[in-house]
Specification:
single chain; 492 residues; alpha/beta; Rossmann fold; GMP Synthetase, Chain A, domain 3; 2 domains; nine-stranded mixed sheet; five-stranded antiparallel sheet; globular; AMP-dependent synthetase
């Protein structure tokens, strides 16, 4: 089954109901959306054969919904790109994926076109609008194992890797969400506060299947007051939000809109104290997920009921394994760890990717003996709750965005006055974590900021620099990140 089928079913069941909204304004019904998608799919087929990669780089826009399903209806592969990346970083993803076309928002189209040979088309522009003059394509009949989504993530090297997600993977994710977390219907809404290129976008299929309207804020971003206003206007509102976004909602001091029924939080650490404050303010509407691009949104979860009257150990956990997913913790010997014993978290099931695009070495290191090795460390308690203990890959998760220390370190080391650099994450009440760089060399923070702006995305820059005489290392010359974290001053 091609994941386009969820839209096909929604159009058949709920054709005249509102499907896509910009703010409070309805743009398309389900029947209209299906027609637009199939017309757009016809034009996309001219880009190449089945399996052609088509990229989308944009802030949240309603067109992302139609582009996503049109790419699938054309039997092409959806390649969403974080629009906050540096144009050079976007160009690297386009080159790696071999994309035939990239649809970009007007905000970034010109800068992106200057850095890549891949054709760039502006979303909503004249050429884009002309694509809907095509005749509607026939609904696709794709092998469920065919590639549907290249989800670009990064490893410890900081180099982008495309997790290959099939139609089967996306359907397994869809079914697990409906079974475990939320049960929307045609009277419900999904409010896209988080980026549709990643977390919020992954939740489009389950809500489309049930006929829940797709709502994009007019700001195209997350503004707490606007988000709460939209939740108050649209019925049965749900959303995926990073923990920092949840905190910003609570900090408004506004009561929970009656229509806001589910907030799924994930993508970064939610500290127990913050979660308690959120529960006190909004009640038991929260659901936690633990997943990664390689097993999209679907490894373990903490349901609404698990939050009610829960102790700190439960609130600090990431819950139970999800439906259709087997999760284990392996010790250093590769055998299942005992209760309470810390080891690497692994999982398997229909939701797990088939590998990394054009990267057999990384695939072999991550998919071993039928298990996805997450690189995260954790332990199960006697009740079956999983708790994350450390991120062995040293990823810093700030404001819901993954920042990879090696990438920042390499950029810092390109500065002629930087001798050594070590990057770690420090806990932060607002962002979850912030980037702190330990630098050896005679250079100012202002010079480093200017240097990094030419090389990496703004949000990846360190919030603070610590200047030291030498990085702590073990006998093999490996930098001891643990000692760097211990050196962090109290304001971190």
């Amino acid at each position: 089954m091609n994941i386009f089928a969820v839209l096909d079913q929604a159009a058949a069941r709920f054709g005249d109901r509102g499907a896509v909204f910009l703010g409070e304004r309805q743009l398309h019904t389900w029947a209209e959306l299906r027609d637009r998608v199939l017309r757009l799919a016809t034009s996309l087929k001219s880009l190449g054969d089945r399996g052609t990669r088509v990229a989308v780089a944009s802030e949240n826009r309603p067109e992302i919904v139609e582009l996503m399903f049109a790419i699938w209806a054309a039997e092409c592969v959806f390649v969403p790109i974080n629009y906050k990346l540096h144009p050079r970083e976007m160009a690297d993803i386009l080159a790696d994926s071999g994309a035939a076309q990239v649809f970009a928002s007007a905000k970034i189209a010109d800068d992106l076109a200057a850095t890549t040979d891949v054709p760039v088309e502006t979303i909503g522009g004249q050429a884009y609008s002309g694509r809907f003059g095509s005749e509607p394509a026939d609904p696709p009949t794709t092998d469920p194992g065919a590639l549907a989504w290249l989800f670009y993530t990064s490893g410890t090297t900081g180099k982008s890797k495309g997790a290959m997600l099939s139609h089967r993977n996306l359907m397994a994710m869809t079914v697990a969400h409906l079974a475990d977390f939320d049960d929307p219907d045609e009277h419900c809404s999904l409010i896209h506060g988080a980026p549709m290129s990643h977390g919020s976008g992954l939740y489009i299929p389950p809500y489309v299947l049930r006929g829940a309207r797709q709502v994009v804020p007019e700001s195209t971003a997350f503004e707490p007051d606007e988000f709460l206003d939209l939740c108050g206007h649209h019925p049965g509102s749900s959303a995926f939000l990073a923990p920092t976004m949840v905190q910003r909602l609570i900090q408004t001091g506004r009561p929970r809109p009656e229509n806001l029924k589910t907030v799924v939080y994930g993508g970064g650490p939610m500290y127990v104290d913050s979660l308690k404050k959120s529960l006190a303010a909004y009640g038991p509407i929260f659901v936690q997920l633990y997943g990664q691009g390689e097993a999209p949104m679907t490894i373990t979860g903490l349901r609404r009921a698990d939050h009610v009257g829960a102790d700190d150990a439960t609130l600090g956990s990431v819950g139970y394994p999800r439906s259709g997913v087997e999760v284990a913790v392996l010790n250093d010997n590769g055998t299942q760890a005992a209760v309470g014993e810390i080891g690497e978290i692994v999982c398997r099931g229909d939701v797990v990717m088939s590998g990394y695009w054009n990267n057999p070495t990384a695939t072999a290191a991550t998919l071993k003996d039928g298990w996805l090795h997450t690189g995260d460390m954790g332990s199960f308690d006697a009740r079956g709750y999983l708790t994350l203990r450390d991120r062995s890959k040293d990823v810093v998760i700030s404001g819901g965005s993954n920042i990879y220390p090696r990438e920042v370190e390499e950029a810092l080391l390109e500065h002629p006055d930087v001798v050594e650099a070590g990057v770690v994450g420090a806990p932060d009440a607002d962002w979850g974590e912030v980037v702190v760089a330990f630098v050896v060399g005679e250079v100012s923070p202002a010079d480093l900021d200017a240097h990094l702006l030419e090389r990496i995305a703004r949000f990846k820059r360190p919030k603070r620099y610590e200047f030291i005489d030498a990085l702590p290392k073990n006998s093999y010359g490996k930098v001891l990140k643990r000692e760097l974290r211990e050196r962090l001053s109290p304001q971190s």
